[in-house]
Amino acid sequence: MLTLLKFLKQGDRFTYIASGSLLGIALAKTSSIPIGSIETEHMYPLDFEEFLWANGFNEFSVQGIRNRFLSKAGLDEPMHAQMMMDLFKNDVPSINLGAVYETVVAQQLAQNERERKRDCAVQ
After folding, report:
1. Which of 81, 83, 91, 119 is the most interior residue, by most CB within 10 Å?
2. Which of these, 85, 120, 93, lies nearest to 75 by C-alpha position?
């Protein structure tokens, strides 16, 4: 991988980012890395508040959710429904709906065929 990135970097048209759980292992096994060719950034998972901010929730909403949590009270139904809808709308573009649709249609067609055969056998 490092060889590929080194080759791509020579063009100097783009900046490349590599990440993954095995990247540190690959770098540790590499004997020579040109100085200045790699910048390391340590990244950590978001906490829940950061997750909400990253998804467009404002400070007022986050504070309201925090207060409900601290008082051990659940969110009221309209607030919960709105949050779920907002988060769902943000996540939908990352889902391959074509594959989901094809699977659902194929399952429905198979179910219809089984029912048709069963009905024919009964008559």
Report:
1. 83
2. 85
Task: List, as one string, the DSSP characters of 33-80.
Answer: --TTS----------HHHHHHHTT--HHHHHHHHHHHHTT-PPPHHHH
**How far from 83 is each of 37, 49, 63, 70, 73, CA to CA, in Å?**
43, 13, 14, 18, 16
Please identify which residue in the block is written with the tokens 């009221």.
Answer: 76
Query: What tokens appear for 18 in the block?
Result: 């590599």
Which three-class secondary structure state does DSSP give residue 98? helix
Quote the CA–CA distance of 40 and 34 in Å, as a whole number. Answer: 14
Residues present in the chain in total: 123
Tokens of 43: 């990244």
Q: What is the pLDDT of residues 63-98, one digit of tens each?
A: 988 999 999 998 888 888 888 887 777 665 555 656
